[in-house]
Design goal:
Length: about 325
């Protein structure tokens, strides 16, 4: 099996790649000695930093035509399996057509193998991919499937972040991710984020509140420009996803309306308040006892979720540590 080669192709975003990591883990379990290569977008590649199930990541950047030519050596190498992660993607279809493989298959076709996990997980995106992988490639049935995301933080990175952002003794840390700046309907309004932040800073038991943004989301921080107060801090990710993950790991609770940090928080084992909508709650939201969701009444829009709903969901996330809504407002 040492000369067995697998090529996986996934060309979309960070969140999509994070929830795909259970598939890489399953391939490694079935083919422990195989070489597993992944073709990923520049964004997707950062989600695979330090992944123990991957041997190499190759970048496809659709903004540059030369990117295809740089991939030809890996595409033209002989592979035993070529796994396309989205059969509806033209990009993935093109790359898969170029790839040499004894057996090619695609996920997102709707053909599912039996499921042996919990019923609550059966329709989750990661679980669906595992079932499709099993059906498409005839893998042995997994009697104990896991949808847990694989994301590795090196000790040196964690130590660096702990030193740069030390926790305040006796205070719980709450991270509030305010992005994604490009997704208006899927992003909770900044005015509501600010209101939630103000409520947290008025708690009888002081909290350490961190407003978190990605590098592209920095313009959103303008809403906090005149709100410098004790206990309010800013964290801007950008150096690496591992650094952001290490910071999230040290939060006692994390609030987000964006899927990528939501999945990253789930991978870090951080209790999370997910601001989401019905379709995403069913398909994307991390499973398990550490996720608590504030869900809108309509799909693809979270803007109408009231601050009180998110506040009370965060209180459950913090195991009842916040003041009652009626007492703080």
């Amino acid at each position: 099996m040492n000369d067995f080669r697998i090529l996986c192709i996934r060309s979309d975003r960070i969140g999509d790649m994070l929830v795909s990591t259970p598939v890489f883990r399953r391939l490694r379990e079935v083919y422990p000695g195989a070489r597993i290569d992944v073709i990923a977008s520049p964004l997707g590649a950062v989600a695979l930093e330090g992944n123990p199930d991957i041997d190499a990541v190759h970048i496809y950047d659709k903004r540059h035509l030369s990117s295809v030519f740089s991939l030809l050596p890996i595409l033209f190498s002989k592979h035993d399996l070529v796994v396309s992660f989205n059969c509806r993607s033209r990009t993935v279809g093109m790359l898969a057509a170029l790839a040499r493989g004894k057996r090619k298959g695609a996920l997102n076709k709707g053909v599912l193998a039996p499921w042996s996990g919990s019923e609550a997980d059966a329709g989750h995106y990661s679980a669906v991919m595992l079932r499709e992988l099993e059906a498409e490639f005839g893998l042995p049935h997994d009697g104990n499937p896991s949808t847990r995301i694989v994301f590795t933080i090196p000790d040196a990175v964690q130590e660096e972040v702990d030193a740069a952002y030390p926790k305040q003794p006796g205070r719980k840390r709450v991270g509030i991710f305010i992005g994604n700046i490009k997704k208006t309907g899927l992003r909770w309004p900044m005015g509501k984020f600010v209101e939630l932040t103000d409520l947290l800073l008025r708690q009888p038991e002081p909290l350490d509140v961190w407003v978190v943004s990605g590098a592209e989301d920095v313009p959103l921080l303008e809403a906090y420009r005149d709100r410098e107060r004790p206990g309010l801090n800013i964290f801007v990710g950008g150096k690496s996803l591992q650094q952001t993950g290490a910071f999230i790991r040290r939060c006692d609770a994390f609030v987000t309306c964006t899927s990528s940090p939501q999945h990253l928080a789930g991978a870090m084992g951080t209790p999370t308040t997910s601001i989401t909508y019905p379709w995403s709650e069913e398909l994307w939201t991390p499973r398990g006892p550490l996720n608590f969701s504030a869900v809108s009444e309509v799909n693809d829009d979270v803007r109408d979720i009231p601050v009180r709903q998110v506040y009370e969901t965060l209180d459950r996330t913090l195991q009842g540590s916040l003041a009652r809504w009626e007492e703080i407002c």
